[in-house]
């Protein structure tokens, strides 16, 4: 069990919060390129609000190493960083944001392990899951998708933009401030469809990780999103 005395760092003045975040990036450790620190620095410089390290090919010690780098760079930009799936890693690293899938650690257990300071997110793929996420305890934000098929989630069926429209409508009718992000295959070529469906926040991977200029890619994606109401 992770000691609650070592849980996520409290939010400091000037630190981004998921409720005001619009652009969320998931990336691997980029070991093939050896540029992780420079890459996340460039992404934050372009306006990315949250960067999640998601790399199934690294062990726990390596993940903690890369998270230390991410933590340092994120603090320099007054932005957020996230851990995926592993609450033990999130607790040890002091991650401010932790994300789980539908079959991962239950939300109450994640909250008990990480404490009240951590911001916890959840993936949703159906209308029922969206409904549950809008009112769930121990949850701070959720993601809706994948909008389009993506190699980062092989075998996961795309949900299309209809589920985004549903999430937008249900969120508006509930009057909730809980933020939600569209995710899955989103890039500059299709972001207009995502915005038209009612999304104001997005999670991207390849749109920035594969870009020659991550800062420019982030700036262009952010400019394509509407301001938060």
From TrEMBL:
<feature type="binding site">
    <location>
        <position position="84"/>
    </location>
    <ligand>
        <name>4-amino-2-methyl-5-(diphosphooxymethyl)pyrimidine</name>
    </ligand>
</feature>
<comment type="function">
    <text>Condenses 4-methyl-5-(beta-hydroxyethyl)thiazole monophosphate (THZ-P) and 2-methyl-4-amino-5-hydroxymethyl pyrimidine pyrophosphate (HMP-PP) to form thiamine monophosphate (TMP).</text>
</comment>
<keyword id="KW-0808">Transferase</keyword>
<feature type="binding site">
    <location>
        <begin position="52"/>
        <end position="56"/>
    </location>
    <ligand>
        <name>4-amino-2-methyl-5-(diphosphooxymethyl)pyrimidine</name>
    </ligand>
</feature>
<feature type="binding site">
    <location>
        <begin position="150"/>
        <end position="152"/>
    </location>
    <ligand>
        <name>2-[(2R,5Z)-2-carboxy-4-methylthiazol-5(2H)-ylidene]ethyl phosphate</name>
    </ligand>
</feature>
<dbReference type="Pfam" id="PF02581">
    <property type="entry name" value="TMP-TENI"/>
</dbReference>
<dbReference type="InterPro" id="IPR022998">
    <property type="entry name" value="ThiamineP_synth_TenI"/>
</dbReference>
<feature type="binding site">
    <location>
        <position position="104"/>
    </location>
    <ligand>
        <name>Mg(2+)</name>
    </ligand>
</feature>
<feature type="domain" description="Thiamine phosphate synthase/TenI">
    <location>
        <begin position="23"/>
        <end position="208"/>
    </location>
</feature>
<comment type="similarity">
    <text>Belongs to the thiamine-phosphate synthase family.</text>
</comment>
<dbReference type="InterPro" id="IPR013785">
    <property type="entry name" value="Aldolase_TIM"/>
</dbReference>
<keyword id="KW-0479">Metal-binding</keyword>
<dbReference type="GO" id="GO:0009228">
    <property type="term" value="P:thiamine biosynthetic process"/>
</dbReference>
<dbReference type="GO" id="GO:0004789">
    <property type="term" value="F:thiamine-phosphate diphosphorylase activity"/>
</dbReference>
<feature type="binding site">
    <location>
        <position position="85"/>
    </location>
    <ligand>
        <name>Mg(2+)</name>
    </ligand>
</feature>
<dbReference type="GO" id="GO:0000287">
    <property type="term" value="F:magnesium ion binding"/>
</dbReference>
<feature type="binding site">
    <location>
        <position position="185"/>
    </location>
    <ligand>
        <name>2-[(2R,5Z)-2-carboxy-4-methylthiazol-5(2H)-ylidene]ethyl phosphate</name>
    </ligand>
</feature>
<feature type="binding site">
    <location>
        <position position="153"/>
    </location>
    <ligand>
        <name>4-amino-2-methyl-5-(diphosphooxymethyl)pyrimidine</name>
    </ligand>
</feature>
<dbReference type="GO" id="GO:0005737">
    <property type="term" value="C:cytoplasm"/>
</dbReference>
<dbReference type="InterPro" id="IPR036206">
    <property type="entry name" value="ThiamineP_synth_sf"/>
</dbReference>
<dbReference type="InterPro" id="IPR034291">
    <property type="entry name" value="TMP_synthase"/>
</dbReference>
<protein>
    <recommendedName>
        <fullName>Thiamine-phosphate synthase</fullName>
        <ecNumber>2.5.1.3</ecNumber>
    </recommendedName>
</protein>
<keyword id="KW-0460">Magnesium</keyword>
<keyword id="KW-0784">Thiamine biosynthesis</keyword>
<comment type="pathway">
    <text>Cofactor biosynthesis; thiamine diphosphate biosynthesis; thiamine phosphate from 4-amino-2-methyl-5-diphosphomethylpyrimidine and 4-methyl-5-(2-phosphoethyl)-thiazole: step 1/1.</text>
</comment>
<dbReference type="GO" id="GO:0009229">
    <property type="term" value="P:thiamine diphosphate biosynthetic process"/>
</dbReference>
<feature type="binding site">
    <location>
        <position position="123"/>
    </location>
    <ligand>
        <name>4-amino-2-methyl-5-(diphosphooxymethyl)pyrimidine</name>
    </ligand>
</feature>
């Amino acid at each position: 069990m992770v000691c609650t005395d070592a849980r996520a760092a409290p939010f400091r003045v000037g630190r981004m919060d998921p409720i005001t975040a619009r652009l969320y990036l998931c990336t691997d450790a980029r070991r093939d390129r050896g540029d992780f620190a420079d890459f996340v620095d460039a992404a934050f410089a372009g306006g990315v609000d949250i960067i999640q390290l998601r790399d199934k090919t690294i062990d726990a010690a390596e993940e903690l190493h890369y998270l230390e780098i991410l933590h340092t760079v994120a603090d320099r930009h007054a932005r957020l960083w996230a851990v995926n799936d592993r609450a033990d890693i999130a607790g040890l690293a002091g991650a401010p944001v932790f994300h789980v899938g539908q079959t991962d650690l239950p939300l109450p257990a994640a909250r008990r392990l990480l404490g009240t300071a951590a911001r916890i997110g959840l993936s949703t793929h159906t209308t029922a899951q969206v409904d549950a996420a809008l009112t769930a305890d121990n949850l701070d934000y959720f993601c809706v998708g994948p909008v389009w098929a993506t190699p980062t989630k092989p075998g996961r069926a795309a949900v299309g933009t209809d589920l985004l429209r549903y999430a937008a409508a249900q969120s508006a009718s509930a009057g909730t401030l809980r933020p939600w992000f569209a995710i899955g295959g989103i890039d500059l070529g299709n972001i207009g469809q995502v915005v038209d469906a009612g999304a104001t926040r997005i999670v991207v991977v390849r749109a920035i990780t594969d870009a020659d200029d991550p800062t420019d890619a982030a700036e262009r994606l952010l400019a394509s999103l509407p301001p938060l109401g």
